[in-house]
Amino acid sequence: MSTEALTLNDVTIDLRQKRILENIHLDVAPGSFTCLLGPSGCGKTTLLRAIAGFTPLSRGDIRLGKRSITHLPPEKRQTAMVFQSYALWPHMSVGENLGYPLKLRGVSREERARKVAAMLERMELGGFESRAVTQLSGGQRQRIALGRALIIDPPLLLLDEPLSNLDAAIRRSLRSELRRLQKSLGITTIMVTHDQEEALQMADQIVLMRGGHIVQIAPPQTLYHQPADLAAARFLGVDNTVTRQTSDPAIASTASTFGFRTRDALINAPQHPAMLTRKGRVTECVYTGDGYQISLAAERAEFCATSATPIAPGTFAVVQVPQSALIPFGSDDRHLPPLDRQEDIA
């Protein structure tokens, strides 16, 4: 399987006199898995379609390896794309769907049959050549759509939310299968998703987008623990913010706000001076299956914590958050590095 690096330089797109993407710069290493992540309308699918050649650029350049593909039509770019709807042809069998891209390229019938059989084995669907695609499950259709993209040996694989039409259990299973397949092939892959968990589990690097711009490019661990700003943090599940107090841990000297996730907040635990501590009145107690989510109101703040046992509304409780779970932000809502790194910068 061939593979190539991808480089985007100053990619800008205007559609119907509206700017959809602006000044996009991105380097994708060969053989890596990159997720374009962001809310609906942020421009991630438009960017994927631009790479595939379906959406023209207003400005900028796209390079695959050493060659520019900016002005090439989709069929000349040698990329392969799996659409959200899978786009399988219902009047064709599984084998005919898989072999059609090879037929368009003039591959002989015998060679097509050999490649189709090999791809079906790789997708763990051996013997399905004659089956109608309408008889397949959602997970099987997803595999056939992926196999049809890979059968032409593309240097770049583009995935437009390929798992979004599946139920949760199948989606979790196929995440692992898709990632294993990508690693075994070593193919450069870019996937669009709005699912934070999906991106964190699958990607080597995540491109977080908002309003047609790239907010942050980082490995999953960095993005999760050091989001670029407060809006990015909230998108990534940081559902609590509190104003800094003088008694709080000194992990960032100029922090004005701390963010943390509900699951990291301890309630009515033995108090520890190295933790952020807040006392509040319980306003709601909701059973979540593996415990209870407790909502609390304190002076000028509302926040949540988890508890193994229910706590009655109206009760006062103490919430503590470990220093390692706190994410500091400045007065401009930008993420701040830890105190030791701030001193290094100074």
TrEMBL record:
Domain ABC transporter, first and last residues per copy: 6-236
SUPFAM superfamilies in alphabetical order: P-loop containing nucleoside triphosphate hydrolases
KW tRNA-binding (keyword) present: no
UniProt keyword list: ATP-binding, Cell membrane, Ion transport, Iron, Iron transport, Membrane, Nucleotide-binding, Transport
Entry's Gene Ontology molecular function annotations: ABC-type ferric iron transporter activity; ATP binding; ATP hydrolysis activity
SMART domains cross-referenced by the UniProt entry: AAA
GO annotations of cellular component type: membrane
Coiled-coil annotated residue ranges, if any: none
A Pfam family recorded for this sequence: ABC_tran
GO process annotations (BP): quaternary ammonium group transport
InterPro entries on file: AAA+_ATPase, ABC_SmlMolc_Importer, ABC_transporter-like_ATP-bd, ABC_transporter-like_CS, ABC_transpr_FbpC, P-loop_NTPase
PANTHER family: SPERMIDINE/PUTRESCINE IMPORT ATP-BINDING PROTEIN POTA, SPERMIDINE_PUTRESCINE IMPORT ATP-BINDING PROTEIN POTA
Protein name per UniProt: Putrescine transport ATP-binding protein PotA (TC 3.A.1.11.1)
